[in-house]
Amino acid sequence: MARLQPVRGTHDILEIKARTFDYIVSHFKAVAERYGHGEISTPIFEFTEVFKRTLGETSDVVTKEMYTFEDRSGEQLTLRPEYTAGIARAFISGGMQQLAPCKFYAYGPMFRYERPQKGRMRQFHQIDAEILGVPEPQADVELLAMAADFLREIGLLDRVTLEINSLGDVESRQAYRDALVVYFQEYKDQLSQDSQERLDRNPLRILDSKNEGDKAIVANAPSIQDYLNEESRLFFSAVCQGLELLDIPYTVNERLVRGLDYYSHTAFEFTTTELGAQGTVLAGGRYDKLIEQMGGPATAGIGWAGGLERLAELVTAEHMPEAHRPVAIIPMGGLAQVKAMKLAHDLRLQGFHIEMGYRGNLGKRLKRANKANAVAAILMGEDEMARRVVTVRNLDSGEQQEVALSDVAQALQPYR
Ligand code: ATP
Ligand code: MG
């Protein structure tokens, strides 16, 4: 029955995938804390305006990707497609300007109505880091250092490339925009339908087009680097110098623009060639005008988001900690069954991982213990129960010993 399928573009996450997500998130949290970021958790839905006004009326996300609905009281709400707008909203509505600079991190599910394919889902997960209230380029460097540090910890830094660019300040971007319009006008008829519309409304977006024909035209478009004013140039070179000081390798990609409207100055992406077309694993940039534009106090901002699914695709087993190996309790007979339930409970209270089969003979239960990758088994037969002992078997070596029921916890210490 079709309705019992997961919704297109959504997935159930379990076993190794769940552990990989957990591994990535726990390293992310530890690194973020080290850089002085505190956790923020914003709601999964916001008023539609929060996203519509900030991401830009012409952005892909707003024009075709938002999950928007009306709730029972007629409010227009949207499932968050990204974190920054929600965090900026929280900064404003929480009156946090008194506390600025604020450094946040967050992680959780995002929702975009996209065409599902490898590395592109309708519900996906992001980790996210933001610094609000720091207009200096040091924040850009620090946030990039944190991203690189995190990627190093999960074993990915040498498999990705950091590409950066500057989108300049408002003046520089206006000059560049004019130059782009002149350039693209000449090829207007050859541009994709989407890009023809972008030409009128937001020509920078054409640079981000995934259409092959567009890409060929974009290849010879003017470079923003030639349109940066003095201030923007200084800002960008301060960021580059900071990266060099910290030995963080990067390449300048003059065509790199980001899909959302709110960026200025620094834009960056960590990309890989290992994932095919969906090669950007972590991306972000500076958004100095966003909070003001939303109606808050003028506050600079910079942030990035990483896609958990894409990162998880790259993480290899060798970097993951081994799953914790349980101890299996295997009772045989009615009396043993009762004793086993009590023993399992006592051991769990002491912090042991205990696997309890519910039924089956000895052979079946041992098989299940092996399947659970149990490190040891506690065998409890009727005869042993009468003598108030159990047999503890090391499932790797096969070695076993008889242990008094009262000493089981002691005997299990090596298997903790
Ligand atoms: P793309 O160009 O791939 O569409 P984007 O610019 O829309 O990316 P961002 O908004 O910058 O992506 O999101 C940050 C990261 O989140 C991306 O680099 C990617 O790793 C991940 N991501 C974005 N959209 C999806 C999706 N639909 N499914 C899975 N991961 C995604
Ligand atoms: Mg996208």
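The domain at 15-169+229-314 is CATH 3.30.930.10 (BirA Bifunctional Protein; domain 2).
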